[in-house]
Prior knowledge:
Blueprint: H1 7-12, H2 21-46, H3 48-55, H4 59-87, H5 90-107, H6 113-141, H7 147-176, H8 179-186, H9 192-198, H10 205-217, H11 223-247, H12 250-255, H13 262-290, H14 292-303, H15 307-310, H16 318-329, H17 336-342, H18 346-364, H19 366-378, H20 382-402
Membrane topology: Multi-pass membrane protein
Protein name: MFS transporter
Transmembrane segments: 28-48, 55-76, 96-118, 149-172, 178-199, 225-245, 265-285, 292-311, 317-340, 352-375, 381-403
Amino acid sequence: MHTALPASRAQTQPWWKEPNKDQWRTFLAAWVGWVLDAFDFTIYLLVIPEMAKEFGVGVTVLAGSITLTLLVRLVGGVAAGAMADRWGRKLPLMISILWLALCDGAVALAPSITWVLVLRTLFGFGMGAEWTSGATLAMENWPERSRGIASGILHGGWAVGYLLAAVVSGFVVPLWGWRALFVIAAVPALLVLPIRYGVPESFDREKALAERRARASLGRTDPVLLTRLAWGSLVMACNFGGYYGLTSLYPVLLKTELGMTTQNVSVLVTIVNVGMLLGTAMCGALASRLGVAKAVAIAAFSMLPFLPLYVGLEPGLMWLGAFAGGFFGAAPPGIAPLLLTSLFPASIRGKCVGLVFHVGAFVAAFIPTGMAALVEHAGFSHAQVIMAVGGLCLVAMALALALRPKSTLDEAPAEAPSPSLG
Length: 422
């Protein structure tokens, strides 16, 4: 664990000077893992039309693979959380990065759509494990004063990964096809070595075991814990619903209904993710100052007027809609690491954070498939379903935070980060 600076000194220096070298290395490991997670997940979204054409299937089938991936995230997140609470945060982080790389390399060689579906389903296990272990590792180590900003920057790593996927796909797919993207995605497995030897562990095994024994002596029924689990899962379901509603079929919209080239799609997706990178940091900073609920409400309701521009109803302003989609629409996920790690004590934090985050993903996993089905079978356009689903889920998340149960406002558990939820 880190050595805290004196309070007077910590308050007078810029937030980025407060963490020590070990804290920065730990945060960087979690951030890089999340960047890789995003790159590996979103390259699939970017090549759905090409894969559908090669394998002779509809978009709904390939969107169904997104659902399968997100469903298995729950299993990976819970398994990694249990490992993290028993053996430390670094081990599941390293295993998850290797797992993602192996699945990506295998997709590049997939002979049929069946193999793609199987491999992308297995991919979900590593995806769930990476976030759980990485977010817990980062938030436990970081100084309390700037955890809101760190939470936003950490989750903003997803935008960096998606941005890289958009840029790389714009160059690679026209020249070598979609399979080459998955070969590239397998390379970062080498990062496991510097994580293994250069990143300190945040986990105090003996203290966690003592806390676990103390909790067991009080019995298994804990109404406050159950309430936090249920409420946190609801917030995360709305969180994922808004993000997947806005982004999962966005490249399909651009390539099909709007007839854009791969390069043009790459430009707009890049703009979205530049906006997200800035927006998640903004939302995290606002959460530290105003509280999580107000930060999310500001982002969610600010996005609503930009939804028509985001889906191209005014073609000349799509760049503005794309930026707003990232800056406002994709900003609320930036509070997830801060919010969830604050709800649970250290002895069960990895398991509970993994469970809540990925139960939310499980619930939202049906959104991409449902949206594709509405387009193919109910006559709606991609633009209509993106605006409706994305907007409704963002508003629902803001309301869930504003109407939170009183038990989530209790004093935070010992050793947990303590943000304001108001």
